[in-house]
Sequence to fold (337 residues):
Amino acid sequence: MSDRWQAALASAPAHRPWPIAAGSPALFVPASLEALAVELQRAPAASLLPLGGGTDGLAATQPDALYLLDGLLEPASVDETSATLDLPASMTWGAAQAIAVAYGLTLTDIPDAFADATIGGTLARQPWQPALHHSGTARARCIGLSAMLTTGERYQYKTASRTASGPDLRTHFLGRAGVTGPILRATIEASREARLPHDLSLPLTAASLQAVVSLQRRFGRALRLLPTPAAATLRLRLRGDRPETALLHDALVAIGAEPTASLTNDRPGADRWLTLPFAEASTLIEATTDLFCLALGPTHLTVALRKPYPPIAFANHELIREGLLGAGFTRHSEVSQ
Fold:
């Protein structure tokens, strides 16, 4: 750790609802992008990563420190003609959606899984991790990218014609968890149908999970499962701009779903994540109710737990993955020279 940083506040930032935990990474706030570039050159590979969107939660590696880009980037801008948003990487998806709605646009097919899920963090999310955010959709909508190499050099990508020559270097930043360098800005293509999504909740049971899985397989583009801070609860979001939304809404209400006015996506009060196939997930749901749903994939369910799950003889134990869920951080600031 560089001697150019020192502890300034030994508590979690206000937007981090999780408590401080032993061994959690430090949170660095660089004074400028140039100062961050210096730190990236000094730090060992993958020891200093960006905060937001996965590198701090279900991470492949546990970095020594995470950095914030707040206050270092230009504000967002909107091009109404082309329906695109030029967004700083430190902005959350919730804030981006609020800007889009103000201009008659929407980003509801990229739900903000947690309140602090950022644009840059989602785009940099490593593909093997359990997808708390729909990073594939976000990358497909990303038509422009600005990033910085660890050497301090800038990279700028703008949409070009298919006949244009030259490599597309975005793949060196998308899905790399910030190892190549931080994403600074992204141009995201929005939809013009600015209809608000429908949020529903229903009790988490083996039967309700099976019903939601069946509906998602048929209507995956309209149905999303979002993390919930309430245990033993499924929280679902239905896109407002899809023709099958009304059918999905009626089907979910028929199995006990109720509308919820809560649009917050706080992190659950848990310290471990667990990804397991649907059959094993049903077995675990029947054994304990102390589960917090995080994400629903094509074949697996990802949950968070407050404590280790009870001993269960799973049929396919080798397909189950688990790890520590990112906890709080000790905030640091740069020492003035």
Summary: The helical segments are 33-42, 93-102, 119-123, 135-141, 206-218, 245-254, 278-287.
